[in-house]
Design brief:
Blueprint: H1 5-13, E1 22-30, E2 33-47, E3 53-57, E4 63-66, H2 81-85, H3 119-122, H4 127-147, H5 205-212, H6 227-234, E5 259-261, H7 271-279, E6 285-289, E7 299-303, H8 312-316, E8 322-324, E9 336-341, E10 350-356, E11 359-365, H9 378-382, E12 397-400, E13 403-406, H10 409-427, E14 434-437, H11 442-456, E15 461-464
Parallel strand pairs: 14-15
Antiparallel strand pairs: 1-2, 2-3, 2-4, 5-8, 6-7, 9-10, 10-11, 12-13
């Protein structure tokens, strides 16, 4: 059966009896109403031209099945009557199936201003394929309307260990633990009868994230920013003329808390070494020789204990040899950049919060902007997980009877002011003190000392660089 096994299992679970290798021969009616269908059984013979076993009817095996309703579902096809009725389409070149033919790269037909796609061009396929065809056709139409000609898009430079998963050498998965997929909840059988309720329920956020975490991340995490790939595209490098490894020659270095080192992608440009030693003055990178017997000299980067996790090397690496550890693939998301000032200390480093929706997924420094000129410390570049943490306080909380409840800012500030006044009136102004922070702006620090001196009526105000 050319059906997904999930569909077959669900059909049998609902009590449907499947009759395989039978063909309908006639519909039987009585008094103008459907009564039964006649089928003939088949046996499989020699494969046809496509390699599929050929079903052949078995004479004398006819059987009649009585039923109340017949649902005819024996395939699908495109309605091509418009080809016969439109005089402008008489010169349209057709395929051997009688459907319009087109360039598979541009989807342009033999009539220059006619583009097709989806099931009309490919036969029964998926919605995703139809959407992809729509995008390709739109780009081709834009070329035709603006330039008067259509050219196939340039094929990007890609390296693959196999176009399909079974083609990938299993040695690439030897250290990866197997984990079952999340099963979608289904409505119990008794609750499906006699109604049109949704059978397949939706998994929750936790299940969705667990399922996404099963992804093997087979592709290169630097695919959208790899400068080596960009140059390969620019100079039309033919991947078919290059030797491609079927497995990693060198193990990944994953000991660093924020950075993964893939020596297999290192081109020994030494930008990580020079940047760390000359700009960061940290000398946290070493190049270790990994020359294979009889081969040319080869070196791979290694991060030593002097690393302070500034992340400068991530922006310097032109390939995927150095990548930021992430919970998922980094793209190709439409990231929104928000420029802001880091508040971890008083330096005022300029940075970009790169986010998808309301979720910050990466932080980068602002190039050519003082005072940091793109450089960041470990807190500025990697210390943003708290933003999306489920335990982060996002609203004022007031404790009553041993329990916290959510409150408005006005209510919380009124309570704080009331408590301060009670302490001041009972114990005097010097019972209160204020500590300001280097993370705050000069204006905020000024207001803090005004609060202490002008409202508390005390000079107990100090500054703490680590606050």
């Amino acid at each position: 059966m050319t059906a997904h096994h999930e569909e077959v299992d669900a059909t049998e679970a609902e009590g449907v009896q499947l009759e395989l290798l039978v063909s309908p021969t006639r519909i039987i009616s009585e008094n103008g109403r459907f009564k039964a269908m006649e089928f003939i059984r088949n046996e499989l013979k020699e494969p046809d031209a496509g390699g599929r076993a050929r079903p052949v009817p078995m004479p004398g095996s006819e059987e009649i099945y009585e039923a109340d309703l017949a649902v005819i579902s024996i395939g699908q096809f495109s309605d091509l009557t418009f080809l016969q009725n439109d005089p402008d389409l008489t010169d349209l070149v057709l395929s051997k199936w009688g459907t319009p033919d087109a360039d598979p790269q541009t989807l342009q037909t033999s009539i220059p201003d006619l583009f097709i796609g989806g099931d009309l061009f490919r036969g029964p396929q998926t919605v995703i394929q139809a959407i992809a065809d729509g995008r390709t056709a739109a780009l081709s139409m834009h070329q035709y309307l603006t330039r008067g000609e259509v050219k196939a898009p340039k094929k990007e430079f890609n390296i693959s260990k196999g176009k399909k998963l079974p083609q990938v050498d299993e040695i690439n998965f030897r250290d990866i633990p197997k984990q079952d997929r999340v099963h979608q909840p289904h409505l119990p059988l008794p609750e499906r009868e006699g109604n049109f309720r949704e059978v397949e329920a939706t998994i929750g956020q936790a299940e969705a994230m667990a399922e996404a975490a099963r992804c093997l991340s087979c592709g290169c995490l630097d695919v959208w920013d790899c400068r080596l790939r960009s140059y390969a595209d620019l100079y039309n490098v033919d991947i078919n003329k290059l030797p491609v490894w079927t497995e990693r020659r060198y193990a990944l270095q994953t000991d660093h808390p924020f950075i993964t080192v893939d020596p297999n992608k290192c081109i020994t440009c030494r930008r990580c070494v020079h940047g760390c030693s000359e700009y960061q003055i940290q000398q946290a990178f070493e190049l270790r020789e990994v020359t294979k017997a009889g081969g040319p000299p080869a070196y791979t980067p290694f991060i030593n204990e002097r690393c302070v996790s500034c992340g400068l090397c991530l922006g310097s690496c032109p390939t995927g040899a150095l990548t930021e550890k992430t919970d998922g693939l980094p793209g190709p998301w439409n990231l929104t950049r928000v420029r802001t000032t880091c508040t971890y200390c008083g330096v005022g480093c300029q940075l970009y919060l790169e986010k998808v929706g309301d979720r910050v997924v990466r932080v980068t420094g602002v190039e050519n902007a003082p005072p940091n000129y793109g450089h960041l410390c470990v807190k500025g570049r990697f210390g943003f997980d708290f933003i999306n943490h489920e335990d982060r306080l996002k609203h004022p909380l007031i404790k009553e009877n041993g329990q916290f409840r959510q409150a408005s800012w006005d209510e919380a500030l009124d309570l704080v002011a009331k408590k301060f006044l009670e302490i001041k009136n009972q114990y005097g102004p010097d019972s209160l003190a204020g500590l300001s922070s280097a993370r705050a702006t000069n204006e905020e620090n000024y207001l803090m000392q005004k609060l202490v001196r002008g409202v508390f009526k005390t000079n107990n105000i100090d500054h703490c660089a680590r606050l």
